[in-house]
Structures are given as C-alpha cells and as structure tokens.
From TrEMBL:
Species in which this protein is naturally found: Chitinophaga sancti
Encoding gene (name): hisS
Domain of life per record: Bacteria
GO cellular component: cytoplasm
The UniProt record lists the keyword Ligase: yes
Record field: catalytic activity: tRNA(His) + L-histidine + ATP = L-histidyl-tRNA(His) + AMP + diphosphate + H(+)
GO biological process assignments: histidyl-tRNA aminoacylation
Gene Ontology molecular functions: ATP binding; histidine-tRNA ligase activity
Protein name per Swiss-Prot or TrEMBL: Histidine--tRNA ligase
Subunit: Homodimer.
Keywords: Aminoacyl-tRNA synthetase, ATP-binding, Cytoplasm, Ligase, Nucleotide-binding, Protein biosynthesis
Domain annotation Aminoacyl-transfer RNA synthetases class-II family profile: ranges: 1-377
Residues that coordinate or bind L-histidine: 97-99, 127, 141, 145, 289, 293-294
Length: 450
C-alpha cells in the first residue's frame, strides 16, 4: 500500500483556504486592472539557458532542473564531465520567477506589443529552497511590470499599487522600503571594489538574517579588507528620516556620479509621493535585493512587526533586462506580491472578511422522492439572484442533512417536510442563530439570505 504524501515545500489547499486565496488574488487583480495593466501567462517550464545566470550565485543554486526525456542512459555515456552531463540531461527548468520569462516574452513578441507595455502575471514559481514558515518550494507570485519607459513616474505608480492593495486587504503597519542599486554601485566604488558589487550586495542582502558581524565575515571571505569592510559597515549604519539619510548619502557620494544619480532618483520618488499614501515609503540603505538584473530603484514590503514574517513583496528597475535576449536598451520596472506570505499574515492577524469565506449560502433539504420537482425551480430562482444554493444529494434523515450543513458551514437551510407541503409553506432555518421561520413559496423570491 502506498502511503499518500506530497513533496516537501508543497501544499494542498482545501476549499476554505482556496476561497481566502482567491480573495487575495481578486484584490490584487482588480488593482492591477484599475492601474491599466494587461494580463499575461507564460509556460511553467523554460529553457535552461533562459534562466541560468540571471538570479545571482545564490539564486542559480535554487533553480529546479527538469530531467529531459529520451535516451538518458545513452547521453550520459557520451558526456565527458559532470557539467556536460548536466547540460545533456537537463535542458529545461521550472521557472524561478515571472520577470525573466516576461523579458523573454517581450523579446519574442516585440513587433506585436505597444510600448510601454504594462503587464501583470499571477502564476506559480518553483525554487529548490529549504522549506520553512513563509518559504515554500512551490508558491505563487503576482507580478506587475512596465517595460519600454524610463520615466520615474512608473516607480511612483508601482508604490501606489502596493499601498492600494495592502490598504484594501486591511493590513495595518506594513512598511514599503526603497533603495537604489546605483547607491550600492557607488558604495562598491567608494570601497575600492567596484568589481565586487555582486558579492557586496549578496552579503548585504543577508543582513536581516545573519546580522552585521556575519555580513562582515562574509565580505572578508569575498575578498574585502578591513578598511573596505569598515566603509560598508558605516554605510549600513546611516540612519534618521528620509531627508537626513539623503543628506548623509550626498556627503558620502559627493565625488561619485553614479551615487549622485541614485540620490537624484531616490529624491524624486520620495518627494513626489501623493498625500493619500497610507504608508509613506522609507529609504532603507541596507536594502540590497541580491538579483543581478536590478539597476535603479529597488523596493521591498515588510509585513507588520507584530507578525514574524519577512518580505511580502519586492521588485525594482532593470534598465537592460531584455538585452539578455538580444533586445538592448529597453528599460523596465516591476514589483511582485508574495501571495503565500500575504495569506499567512492575513490569517495570523484575522483579517479575512467573512465574505471571503462564503461558499454555498442555502441548502435545500431532500426529504423524499418528490422533493426534486419542487426544489429545482427554487434552485434556479436562487442562483438567478446570485445566491449559491444546492440540493442535498439524496433523501435522508433531517439530522444527517443538518450535520452536513454544519460541517460545510452553510448558513441557511430550506426544509419542506410533510407539514410545510400541506400548508404550502417553506421553513427556513438560520444555522448560525438557530432561528427558524415559515414563508410562502412565492416569498422566497425576495427573501434576504444575509
């Protein structure tokens, strides 16, 4: 006998969970549409060379490779070394995120698109990560990107999308944190190690997880000396409000054109915020986001501090992502929502509204063989009004049908027993309050199941 199980880092979702997840998806999708974005879907798998080398050293390790079909044994015997064997046997991989497949799509369809192209995408991605709370091997991302425009108005619009979605979800205390990769590039220059930008950002990106001392150790392992590490440590200690941080950055990078450009972009985004923002974006110089393709603003949304959860969204500007696929100088910017983590936060804070958990509102009891003829017109009438209704699948004792309604969480039942049929009436019971009343069959057309 096979013991039923699922792979680590994956999950089944029952009806209650799916309804709550759909509430999140619907809130995000409606916001995307309101901001003028178009839907897109791409395949679950991509060519291996589409994905590798795009996510940094750490990210490449987490790509789920797909064992190719065909003469595997024969190809294995032909391989000269392990690297060649890997290429021969794994030519495809599950997508790691939605951004790189989006870039590939844009290049393949460039002649059919109107630029700037604004798209949103809501699909699962896969990462060979160590499963833990808030971190899964299969999870959904909801991305929104604008490609073909250099305007910083796009950055502001995306920050407004974050603010709008989390406000609609009723989440209090979330934080939108932003930085700029040009600032980090300038830091690498000032530290005298511009060639080690990726190494520096990968180490800084771990600050929240491992602390400053471990970051220093990692920087040393990556080839920086004590004085260079001190420059970076001092940078990471920059504090104050947004304006004060910008002033300190201005002093540090007064001789760096790259740094000045990054400060200029940050200042524009931070100082052009609409007054209606629920959560004013915070300049966070420690924000690195270790993905190689970011070139401008980077952003991350932190869950409320009352919940032990890290980032629930992130993204940034990538000036030449499509250049990886032969279409250079096409700037883009995008953000992503971590739906699975958002779900966990809403669940922990009890923020899902009752309407997000509603399924069948009305169950018509099946009392005998004659019930069907009366029940189906009732079902049709209820469904025409947008009320989810069903008939119990077979004649059964009332107690059994009551238990079924309770287990399903159905709030109303309609009973047509002998006495009701004789009187030409219906009994409607509220399963939450326990109240029961009789109405005429005609009155059902206007009865409120609220």
């Amino acid at each position: 006998m096979i013991k039923p199980s699922i792979p680590k880092g994956t999950r089944d979702f029952g009806p209650v969970v799916v309804r709550k997840r759909q509430y999140i998806f619907q809130t995000i999708r409606e916001t995307f549409e309101l901001f003028g974005f178009q839907p897109l879907e791409t395949p679950a798998m991509e060519q291996m060379d589409t994905l590798t080398g795009k996510y940094g050293e750490e990210g490449d390790k987490l790509i789920f490779k797909i064992l190719d079909n065909g003469d595997i044994l024969g190809r294995a015997q032909q391989a000269k070394d392990s690297r060649e064997l890997g290429i021969l046997l794994c030519e495809k991989a599950l997508r790691y995120d939605l951004t790189i497949p989006f870039a590939r799509f844009v290049v393949m369809n460039q002649n059919d698109l109107a630029f700037p192209f604004k798209r949103y995408q809501m699909q699962p991605v896969w990462r060979a990560d160590k499963p833990q709370k808030g971190r899964y091997r299969e999870f959904y991302q909801c991305d929104v990107d604008i490609v073909g425009s250099n305007s910083l108005l796009n950055e502001i619009e995306l920050l407004m999308i974050y603010d709008s979605v989390f406000t609609k979800l009723g989440m209090e205390g979330y934080e939108i944190r932003i930085n700029n990769r040009k600032i980090l590039s300038a830091l690498a220059e000032v530290a005298g190690k511009p060639a080690l930008l990726t190494d520096i950002t990968v180490a800084i990106d771990k600050l929240d997880k491992i602390g400053i001392e471990k970051v220093k150790e990692e920087l040393a392992e990556r080839g920086l000396n004590d004085s260079e590490i001190t420059i970076i440590a001092n940078f990471l200690n920059i504090g104050g409000n947004n304006e004060e941080k910008l002033q300190q950055l201005g002093e540090l990078f007064k001789n760096s054109e790259t740094g000045k450009k990054g400060i200029e972009e940050l200042s524009y985004v931070l100082q052009s915020q609409p007054t209606a923002f629920k959560a004013t974006p915070i300049l966070d110089v420690t924000l690195a986001r270790g993905l190689n393709y970011y070139t401008g603003m980077i952003v991350e949304v932190k869950a409320p501090s009352t919940v032990k959860m890290g980032s629930i969204g992130g993204g940034g500007r990538y000036d030449d992502l499509t250049g990886l696929f032969g279409l250079p100088n096409l700037s883009g910017v995008g953000i992503s929502f971590g739906v699975d983590r958002i779900y966990d936060v809403l669940e922990e804070l009890n923020l899902f509204p009752a309407t997000a958990q509603q399924g069948t509102r009305v169950l018509i009891f099946n009392m005998d063989a004659n019930t069907t003829a009366t029940a189906f017109p009732m079902l049709a009438g209820l469904r025409a009004r947008g009320i989810a209704a069903e008939l119990y699948h077979e004649p059964a004792k009332m107690d059994k049908q009551m238990k079924y309604a309770n287990k399903r969480g159905i709030p109303y039942v309609i009973i047509m027993g002998e006495s009701e049929v004789k009187e030409g009436m219906l009994s409607i019971k509220n399963m939450v309050s326990g109240q029961q009343e009789k109405i005429t069959a005609a009155a059902l057309a206007s009865y409120s199941f609220e």
